[in-house]
């Protein structure tokens, strides 16, 4: 079957939700094993999920302000950044989205990101290096990609994923601490030796596995935003050309952090490239060459 914008969008949506379903099932499996090993059953896992959810809830409502502050973003007015502002304005109208706030980061490395809990509270940010190096069609491609993240509610989805990842990390940590304090108590009737061994194994491996699933979802949403952005601008080559320029610039984004890296259109730590299958598993973004190849084929 030929690759089209519509097949890419459909395929990426299906793959994202399949991963999410597997993630939820994985969470309940981990909860069951650790709960049984400690003899608490499901109630213990439920409490940990609620605690993690409350923490993530407050983070969710303040994440955009925090991200913009960490990134050193400044509001972009229409008179100073006319091209950026009008591009965001025009594509927002075309996408049927509310006009997001527009920001600029003074950084020579070309990159961009979107943040905000929903389309009514969204912000789009570009680096000064991006504005200097891209032409009109390339800038439209990048902004189309970022607005697609907004329209696809990717921030909300990743918040749910973060709750699951955080809950698994809390479950594993509390389990290991509880086992340490209980020492060699293996005579309890409510917890068999096999569950204790499985619990220790899951406590070690589950947080790593959860992080890998989180990164897989992040990469899948990048592919989806590429396809959705191309559909919005009707010009996939614009985004492909932009990604090519972004990928060819070696310097990393100065204010990017591990917590904000997944928001950017391309890996902001590109100065530390490591090739290989394992490296890609731990990457927040798909290989940029793969993204360009798919866009060129649309």
Task: Provide a count of the helices.
Answer: 10
Total domain count: 2
Overall, the morphology is elongated
Overall pLDDT score: 83
Distance between termini? 12 Å
- Reading the helices and strands in chain order gives HHEHEEEHHHHHHH
Describe the structure.
The chain has about 300 residues and is mostly helical. The protein folds into two domains: about 5-65 and about 155-215, no CATH class; about 70-155 and about 220-295, 2-Layer Sandwich (Zincin-like). The chain has ten helices and four strands, in the order H-H-E-H-E-E-E-H-H-H-H-H-H-H. It has helices at about 5-40, 40-70, 80-95, 130-135, 135-150, 155-180, 195-235, 235-250, 275-280, 290-295; strands at about 75, 100-105, 110-115, 125. The chain has a four-stranded mixed beta sheet with strand order 1-2-4-3, with helices on both faces. A hairpin with a 7-residue loop joins strand 3 (about 110-115) and strand 4 (about 125). The radius of gyration is 21 Å and the shape is elongated. The model has no long low-confidence stretch (mean pLDDT about 85).
